[in-house]
Amino acid sequence: METAWVLTGSTMACAAVLAPAMLRGSVGAICTQAALLRATPSPLRHLTLTSIMKSRWKTDHLERTANVLRHEVVSAAKVCGAAQESPSVKRLRLLVADGDFTFKAGQWIDFFIPGVSVVGGFSICSSPRLLEQERIIELAVKYTNHPPALWIHNQCTLDSEVAVRVGGEFYFDPQPADASRNLVLIAGGVGINPLLSILRHSADLHRERANKGSGYEMGTIKLFYSAKNTSELLFKKNILDLVNEFPEKIACSLHVTKQTTQISAELEPYITEGRITEKEIRDHISKETLFYICGPPPMTDFFSKQLANSHVPQEHICFEKWW
């Protein structure tokens, strides 16, 4: 793991550890600890119960997340789109027709592949609104030698059939009557995935309130995002589009730690060379602010500890480690 807090080539996108429990309340976020729910076998062809419940990979997603809340529903899904998001990351669109399949912004899925005994774990990077309107979810998967990632990069095609199940205790799900909160989102590498889902969901909530005059009132959102170079900063256009759409609500600071080429004029105003600093984060501390952190363990450990040392309440710090 690099000390610059970007995901290396051997890092598997697999959610594992969460911050201290964050109970439902006026903050509108949930990070509760809960027991593993009983899984319902999927009817998908060639997908056996053994392949769902057992995975032998040495950094096993199911073992790492065994005590994390999961939905009971295992739903069939079909690949309906794929593209390279960066030289090392492939973006995947899945059509999930099952109306019982839902998720909250920030959650991940168990990813079951027929014929592959290892179960993947990947955060959803799209918003819940896209699923509601089009029955589509999006993933962004880094190339590694982990079997599910290898399948996505080397074997997956349009109309490939898989199965998915939602899990995770790292999400943002405010209710209309909850108090307005600011968000600080801190991402490293492909740790941007769940935070992009939260960012997109926050934008949807803001649009809804602007259009209807009701619903949850979002505070400000500041995204700090670090990667090795600008080619590995995922979803740059999507992020900047939201910044430009909501200039008074959404801002971003994009960090690169090993940039060797010239930075484009479009990106330059948002780019800082070097890692995200403690001072940058500390400047955003307030009693109305929630902090969501997702990246490799050294990054999440550092910022969660620094926030705690700055007397940010534990229930205002939610993080997820990616291994």
Major β-sheet, in short?
7 strands, mixed
Q: In percent, how helical is the residue content?
A: 10-25%
Strand content: 25-35%
Number of strands: 15
End-to-end distance = 9 Å
Shape: globular
Structural class: alpha/beta
The ordered H/E elements are EEHHEEEEHEHEEEHEHEEHEHE
The radius of gyration over CA amounts to: 19 Å
Could you tell me the mean pLDDT? Answer: 84
Q: Please, what is the oligomeric state?
A: single chain
- Strand order in the largest sheet: 1-15-14-10-11-12-13
**Count of runs of 4 or more consecutive helical residues:** 8
Stretches with pLDDT under 50, minimum 5 residues: 1-58
Give a short synopsis of this structure:
By secondary structure, the chain is an alpha/beta fold.
Detailed description of the structure:
The chain is of the alpha/beta class and 323 residues long. The protein contains 8 helices and 15 strands. The chain has a 7-stranded mixed sheet, sandwiched between helices. It has a 6-stranded antiparallel sheet with strand order 6-5-8-3-4-7. A hairpin with a 7-residue loop joins strand 5 and strand 6. The protein is globular.
